[in-house]
Design goal:
Elements lengths: L1 H25 L21 E7 L15 E7 L9 E2 L2 H8 L3 E2 L14 E2 L11 H4 L6 E6 L15 E10 L15 E3 L14 E3 L20 E4 L6 E4 L8 E16 L5 H4 L26 E6 L1 H12 L3 E6 L15 H7 L37
Antiparallel strand pairs: 1-2, 1-3, 4-5, 6-13, 7-12, 7-14, 8-9, 10-11, 12-13
């Protein structure tokens, strides 16, 4: 939206040029007679009116000075905007402005409006940030973490359109306890209780083959499981899990067609008074110019709807994995996507479940071998980009 400011300034400059040409061409004409009964300043024609213009650069919060603070100029009546401070009494207009405070920075030559002035020092209006002007009404900006892998290898720039993918793990839990299944079970004692366990419906842990319920096996309690019928022996057996419940991975597109507002930290020169330099200094050492290096961005700010902002905030707080994908700048299509699970991949990508063979690889492969990625990028190797 910075271009909007430029267009507004150009419009004001053009207006001033037109006004100057009008005065130069019509300055020798006889002033029109005022309407009967209407006040009129000497030399002010009926189709002209006085407006107040800043005579110098006025900083936010400062008092409008009497000396050269404002200039009262003539302007065609039909070109005056309602918000301008205008009238037919030059001195009265100056009195309305001089001595009041500027609610914002006012550049020299800008028409002064009532919204730019205030009587109270505490009622000052900040000009705000350029970032806020880039956000359309009904949208908001939120910052999320990103890395070289989750951020399209740092290809993203301000103004890019992106989608946000989310992945997280799901486990089955007891609806009442909100604890991971399977539950541990205990035997129910007599309703009246026992001398050792008082009260009705008292429960105590049961461990197969162990007389002492508090006894542990190898430092742990006996595992809990279920009773099944062995198909070969046709006998009941106690089945226990060999490991804790495995979480189930799911991935889905969370946000569609968001706009990148900023990559990394916003510039802080206007706040700090100087550029903020991030130092790569070993702990306990003083920063020196030798260990100043380019800081790779670890956050990115997106423009999204308020509801999408809530979804992103939840995902970040829940520790979900977020990945950004880059869209074409001309791509405004809205598409539906399906959540990706192991079952979806098997059903839709022609993936075959490996058969159980009488031979296998050695050493055993317990997880995929992922190529090593060094997340620390040397700036000098990148040519100082």
């Amino acid at each position: 939206m910075r271009g909007g400011r430029v267009l507004m300034l150009l419009a004001i400059i053009i207006l001033l040029v037109v006004l100057a040409a009008y005065l130069m061409l019509g300055g020798n004409e006889e002033p029109a007679q005022p309407e009967e009964g209407g006040p009129m300043q000497p030399g002010l024609s009926a189709d002209m009116v006085f407006v107040v213009v800043a005579g110098q650069d006025i900083s936010r919060g400062s008092i409008i000075p009497e000396q050269d603070g404002v200039v009262v100029s003539q302007m065609p009546r039909d070109l005056v905007i309602e918000t301008m401070i205008s009238g037919e009494d030059e001195e009265e207009l100056k009195e309305r402005v001089v001595g009041r405070r500027a609610r914002m920075d006012i550049a020299r030559g800008i028409f002064i409006t009532e919204g730019m002035l205030t009587e109270e020092a505490g009622d000052l209006l900040g000009v705000g940030s350029d970032a806020a002007m880039a956000i359309e009404p009904g949208y908001t900006a939120i910052t999320i973490p990103w890395t070289r892998i989750s951020g399209v290898a740092y290809a993203l720039r301000k103004g890019d359109q992106v989608d946000v993918l989310v992945s997280f793990l799901i486990v089955s839990v007891d609806a009442d306890f909100q604890t991971v299944l399977p539950n541990e079970t205990t035997a129910l004692s007599a309703l009246g209780g026992t001398p050792q366990l008082f009260g009705p419906h008292v429960t105590a842990p049961v461990y197969p083959g162990i007389e002492d319920p508090t006894r542990r096996i190898d430092g742990e309690y006996w595992p809990y499981g279920r009773v099944d019928i062995d198909p070969l022996l046709d006998l009941p057996v106690h089945v226990v899990p060999s490991e804790s419940q495995r979480p189930r991975l799911v991935s889905q597109r969370l946000i569609e067609n968001a706009t990148v507002l900023e990559v990394g930290t916003f510039p802080l020169r206007d706040v700090m008074g100087h550029d903020v330099v991030i130092l790569d200094t070993p702990e306990g050492e003083e920063p020196t110019t030798e260990n100043v290096e380019e800081s790779l961005p670890d956050i990115i700010t997106l423009i999204v709807t308020p509801q999408d902002a809530l979804a992103l905030n939840w995902a970040v707080k829940a520790g979900a994995d977020l990945v950004l994908t880059l869209r074409s700048p001309d791509d405004t299509t809205i598409t539906d996507t399906s959540s990706i699970t192991l079952q979806y991949l098997l059903d839709n990508y022609n993936i075959t479940v490996p058969a159980k063979l009488p031979f296998a690889l050695t050493p055993a492969i317990n997880q995929p071998i992922v190529p090593f990625i060094d997340y620390k990028v040397n700036v000098e190797e990148r040519g100082g980009e």
